[in-house]
């Protein structure tokens, strides 16, 4: 619906990860709070001290994420996904180690 309305009015539409932690991430400095119960409507960032309205802070983060995705020409995230190391990917067998 939002995508359709954006197209109708000549606006840009960007979709972000629905599980992005927009509520508990400080829109000013990026610090992320571990837990934030729904009853918390306003909070102070423990990193930069900025006071946030829960919903306004989330809206700012959503806007920033949408713009980031728009600016990324390939439509991919700006950070590479973490790839777990393969067992025995690196290293030297003990028999090939440094001789003392
Ligand atoms: Zn902050």
Question: Tags for this entry?
Answer:
binds zinc ion, 100 residues, two-stranded antiparallel sheet, 25% helix, single chain, mainly alpha
How would you describe the overall organization of this protein?
The structure is a single chain. This protein is mainly alpha-helical and 100 residues long. It has one domain. It is 25% helix and 6% strand. The chain has two helices and two strands. Zinc ion binds next to loops.
Fold topology:
Layout: H1 2-8, E1 42-44, E2 51-53, H2 54-71
Antiparallel strand pairs: 1-2
The structure holds zinc ion.
Tell me the overall shape.
flat
Strand content: 5-15%
Name the helix and strand elements from N-terminus to C-terminus, one letter apiece: HEEH
The count of strands amounts to: 2
Give me the number of helical elements.
2
Structural class: mainly alpha
Mean pLDDT: 82
Sheet with most strands: strand arrangement: 1-2
Bound molecules: zinc ion
Q: Spans with pLDDT under 50 lasting ≥5 residues? A: none
User: How many domains make up the 3D coordinates?
Assistant: 1
Helical content class: 25-40%
Intertermini distance: 70 Å
Task: Tell me the major beta sheet.
Answer: 2 strands, antiparallel
Instruction: Give Rg in angstroms.
Output: 21 Å
């Amino acid at each position: 619906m939002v995508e359709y309305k954006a197209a109708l009015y000549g606006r840009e539409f960007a979709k972000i990860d629905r599980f992005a932690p927009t509520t508990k991430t400080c829109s000013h400095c990026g610090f992320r709070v571990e837990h934030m119960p729904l009853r918390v409507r306003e909070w102070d960032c423990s990193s930069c001290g900025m006071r946030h309205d829960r919903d306004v802070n989330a809206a700012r983060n959503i806007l920033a994420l949408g713009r980031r995705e728009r600016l990324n020409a390939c439509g991919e995230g700006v950070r590479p996904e973490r790839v777990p190391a393969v067992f025995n990917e690196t290293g030297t067998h003990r028999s090939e180690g440094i001789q003392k």
